[in-house]
Amino acid sequence: MADGNNTRHGATAVVLGGSVAGLCSAGVLAPHFDRVIVLERDELPPGAEHRRGVPQSKHPHFVLNAGRRAMGTIFPGFEDALVEAGGLLLMASMSAAYGEKDGWAPRKASTMTMLYSSRVLVERVLRDKVRELPTVEIREGAAVTGLVTTGGGTPDGRVRGVEYTGPDGDAVVLDADLVVDALGRGSSVADWLAAAGWP
């Protein structure tokens, strides 16, 4: 149950997708709903390992300052946990080489630092933080197949849940007061909304 400093918005929120956007969404929603359920198609590895649903996970990553501040607000201690897990806090102007029109830029001290890490390590640390939240549940192997709606295309219409197939192949209908689409560019949510009657 949300504490007195947070507005309660309903019983259940469902987040579609368990990568960075989905995990951060779950963290934001946790104080405002009795339970938050994250539906993730992949089986999530216990450590920082690559997975099929994140094709860019093998690229080096760095977390820009606005992202660092946001993740640290949602999940206090995120930055320290990432560094403790192997991420690097570096001053880019001293630690990275970059070219200018006349050759390599001189290295110099700056006030800006950045967090460098693999994408899979960022996700693993976020998953650890989400799993510390008592009202959040991550359901793995959950392939979302559609939305449950009423009154599609009308002013009183709403999304009232989602349908998904569990790891055992069984179809599941999950009622929700709020559904967040964090499936990325492969999401079918816009198509499902259109099929339900919304433009």
Structural notes for this entry:
This protein is α/β, with parallel strands linked by helices. The protein is 26% helix and 31% strand. It has a four-stranded parallel β-sheet, covered by helices on one side. A three-stranded antiparallel β-sheet has the order 3-7-4. A three-stranded antiparallel β-sheet has the order 9-10-11. The protein starts with 9 loop residues before the first strand and ends with a helix.
Topology, element by element:
Elements: E1 10-16, H1 20-29, E2 33-40, E3 60-63, H2 65-74, H3 78-84, E4 88-90, H4 92-95, E5 99-100, E6 103-104, E7 114-118, H5 119-131, E8 136-140, E9 143-150, E10 158-165, E11 171-175, E12 178-181, H6 189-196
Question: What's the short version?
Answer:
The chain is α/β, with parallel strands linked by helices.
Q: How many alpha or pi helices? A: 6
- Number of strand elements: 12
**H-E string:** EHEEHHEHEEEHEEEEEH
Distance between the termini: 35 Å
Shape: elongated
Stretches with pLDDT under 50, minimum 5 residues: none
Mean pLDDT: 88
